[in-house]
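Encode chain A's predicted structure.
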Amino acid sequence: MKIAAFFDFDETLLAIDSASVGFRVLREQGYLKRSFMLKMMLVLFLRKIGMVNEQIMAKAFLSFYRGRSLQPFADSAEDFYSEYLQPNLAPQVVEKLKWHQEQEHLTVLVTGSIDYYLQPVMEDLGLDHLLCTHLETGSDGLLTGRSLGPVCVGKKKVELAQNLAREQNIDLSRSYAYGNSELDIPILEQVGHPVIVNPTPALQKYATKLDWPLL
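Encoded structure for chain A:
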């Protein structure tokens, strides 16, 4: 059976949060309306006090795309990667990724981020598989503001990883996973070699009890 290494993206393989950067750029480009920004501020506040979960927050973010064409965003993905993301890749984690590739392990990017701007990441770093959030397109050819399939966070990451393991004959008990947040605990628990990266306090506390290594 094969061995795989599953990498979270934001604040793990990438040292920053790509969504925050992306929305800042969209705001500078005049895409974001005041009403949407106010809605997101409310959702982020409710998330902070525990009144909404990560799924609801992600769906609120996705509503930005409703009624828009995907093409302009896809066309700008390469420039967005080279200008904002590539300079902020986490060197130690990229080094680990390369080590796994040298060992001929399958490398998997598993993240709640959206597929169109992750393609340059996949190509540049030579990752084998992408598990992420996909945008739904309506019959009119425009985005619906919903995900096509599950939003790839929390337990949904686990479901997608398990599906991939069955398809690719991956032995999860011998595989690795890298994550930074308590939201990554479900997938970290699935593998024999969980590693925490730049952990949130909640993840650090949990990982300390289980003696998970820190990168």
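The chain has a mean pLDDT of 91.
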